[in-house]
Amino acid sequence: QPLEGVAASSIGEALVTQRPLSGTLRLFGSDRAGQLSRIAEVLAQCGVTILNLLVTTGFGDPDTHEFVERTGGPLSQNVISVAAFDREAFDEEVFRREVRQAANDVGYSVTSIIFETDGDRGR
């Protein structure tokens, strides 16, 4: 049912201008119980939603120094797709600081946070 007094074109314009800021977090380090729970708390506090989560466990190969997947391994590699739907309320600097601190606190030794720029959308 159409909204009274609101033109369809203005609704479309609002949807286009209110696209969420999306990005990817990559966390790598020792695998410990409760790590992702703490990260999810920080994301929620910063107004960020998890869109997708990929968790891989494994170990570091001593010869090649590469991550080798193995269920139950001592290391964890996590790729988390996220979105901030309220771009005006989102503070990227605070988000980066809080995620890095929480990741460090729970045992992740490598943290990468990459947000799409407006120019990247649609690729």
Number of strands: 5
Largest sheet: 5 strands, antiparallel
**Uncertain spans, ≥5 residues at pLDDT below 50?**
none
Q: Please indicate the percent range of residues in DSSP E strands (runs of 2 or more).
A: 25-35%
**Strand arrangement across the biggest beta sheet:** 3-2-4-1-5
Q: Helix- and strand-based class? A: alpha+beta
CA-CA gap between termini: 33 Å
The helix fraction, in percent, is: 25-40%
Quick description:
The chain is 28% helix and 35% strand. The chain has helices at residues 8-17, 35-45, 92-105, and strands at 21-30, 49-60, 67-69, 75-84, 108-115.
Looking at this protein, list some descriptive labels:
123 residues, alpha+beta, 5-stranded antiparallel β-sheet, 3 helices, 5 strands, 28% helix
What order do the helices and strands come in, and which of them pair?
Elements: H1 8-17, E1 21-30, H2 35-45, E2 49-60, E3 67-69, E4 75-84, H3 92-105, E5 108-115
Antiparallel strand pairs: 1-4, 1-5, 2-3, 2-4
Explain what the structure shows.
The protein has 123 residues and is α+β, with helices and mostly antiparallel strands. It has three helices and five strands; from the N terminus they run H-E-H-E-E-E-H-E. Strand 2 and strand 3 (67-69) form a beta hairpin. Helix 2 runs antiparallel to helix 3 (92-105). The radius of gyration is 18 Å and the shape is elongated. The chain starts with 7 loop residues before the first helix and ends in an 8-residue tail after the last strand. The model has no long low-confidence stretch (mean pLDDT 87).
